[in-house]
């Protein structure tokens, strides 16, 4: 299992995810049996280690702050959640042979569904949260996990044929900046799928107020998205803006190829 980011060494060793009786997460470094102190599941999440533990794990910092992304986890009362996920994945039109797929800020549940329903050659997940990445890696060791933004993804993995932007409001960039970055990492004809299964209103009316440190942008309306898409050689091929569902699918046209 390998995680990498500006904060975590590219050679961070294998960790095993263990659950204690209390609501905490412990990451156990299997080869050296180095234990990191418990990581609370509710904010503030803070991962603290002694200098010796940090050195053993390859971490360049004595303390890592883990923000809580659990507000994106599945709501048990949302009986349509699975159908929405299938609709999002189907919109990507993933080819079974040779496809390279990137998922930005996915939930572990979403990765489960991608793996089950859309076989691909390569699946890369990027997230700010080491907790989320650990959950993904625990279930799917073949998924490549990287901590950070789209720009941290190694060049050896590009170009991507499909990019799922699972929670754009938490990516910390404008839609113009996002598409500018993706235009350098996509193959001709690649599909970008921006989605949120709770809809745009949930972001604007709830998330921006409750999680201002994480949620810094709204989901783009069609006019804003079209303008950014044209600037970076993307075309909108599907746009759905329903009260409890948002989906925008863009196709990349690399004019230099």
Description:
The chain is of the alpha/beta class and 257 residues long. It has two domains: 52 residues, no CATH class; 179 residues, Rossmann fold, CATH 3.40.50. 26% of the residues lie in helices and 28% in strands. It has seven helices and 13 strands. The strands form three sheets. It has a seven-stranded mixed sheet with strand order 9-8-7-10-11-13-12, with helices on both faces. Strands 1, 2, 3 and 4 form a four-stranded antiparallel sheet that branches. Strands 5-6 form a two-stranded antiparallel ribbon. Strand 1 and strand 2 form a beta hairpin. Helix 3 runs parallel beside helix 4 and helix 5 packs parallel to helix 7. The two termini are 36 Å apart.
Q: What brief labels describe this structure?
A:
7 helices, disordered N terminus, four-stranded antiparallel beta sheet, globular, alpha/beta, Rossmann fold, 2 domains, 257 residues
Arithmetic mean pLDDT: 80
CATH architectural label of the largest domain: 3-Layer(aba) Sandwich
Element order, helices and strands?
Answer: EEEEEHEHEHEHEEHEHHEE
SS element count, helices:
7
Q: Could you give me the name of the CATH homologous superfamily of the largest domain?
A: Vaccinia Virus protein VP39
The largest β sheet comes out as: 7 strands, mixed
**Gross geometry:** globular
Distance between the termini: 36 Å
DSSP E strands, number: 13
**Which regions contain 5 or more consecutive residues with pLDDT less than 50?**
1-62
How many structural domains are formed by the residues?
A: 2
Tell me the Rg in angstroms.
18 Å
Give the strand order of the largest sheet, numbering strands 1, 2, ... along the chain: 9-8-7-10-11-13-12
Task: Classify the secondary structure makeup into a structural class.
Answer: alpha/beta
Q: Return the CATH topology of the largest domain.
A: Rossmann fold
Proportion of helical residues = 25-40%
What fraction of residues sit in β-strands? 25-35%
CATH class of the largest domain: Alpha Beta
């Amino acid at each position: 299992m390998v995680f990498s980011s500006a904060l975590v060494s590219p050679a961070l060793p294998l960790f095993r995810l263990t659950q204690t009786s209390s609501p905490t997460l412990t990451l156990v470094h299997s080869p050296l049996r180095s234990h990191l102190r418990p990581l609370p599941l509710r904010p503030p999440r803070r991962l603290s280690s002694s200098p010796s533990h940090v050195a053993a794990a390859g971490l360049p910092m004595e303390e890592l702050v883990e923000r809580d992304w659990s507000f994106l986890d599945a709501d048990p009362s949302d009986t349509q959640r699975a159908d929405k996920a299938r609709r999002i994945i189907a919109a990507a039109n993933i080819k079974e042979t040779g496809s390279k797929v990137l998922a930005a800020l996915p939930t572990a549940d979403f990765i489960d569904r991608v793996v089950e329903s859309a076989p691909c050659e390569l699946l890369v997940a990027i997230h700010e949260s080491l907790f989320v990445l650990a959950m993904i890696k625990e279930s799917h060791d073949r998924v490549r996990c990287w901590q950070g933004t789209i720009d941290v993804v190694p060049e050896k993995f590009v170009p991507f044929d499909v990019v799922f932007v699972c929670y754009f409001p938490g990516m910390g960039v404008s839609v113009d900046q996002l598409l500018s970055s993706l235009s350098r990492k996509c193959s001709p004809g690649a599909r970008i799928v921006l989605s949120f299964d709770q809809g745009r209103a949930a972001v604007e009316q709830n998330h921006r107020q409750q999680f201002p440190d994480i949620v810094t942008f709204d989901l783009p309306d069609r006019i804003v998205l079209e303008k950014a898409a044209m600037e970076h050689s993307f075309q909108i091929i599907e746009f759905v803006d329903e009260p409890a569902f948002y989906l925008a699918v863009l196709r990349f046209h690399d004019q230099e190829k």
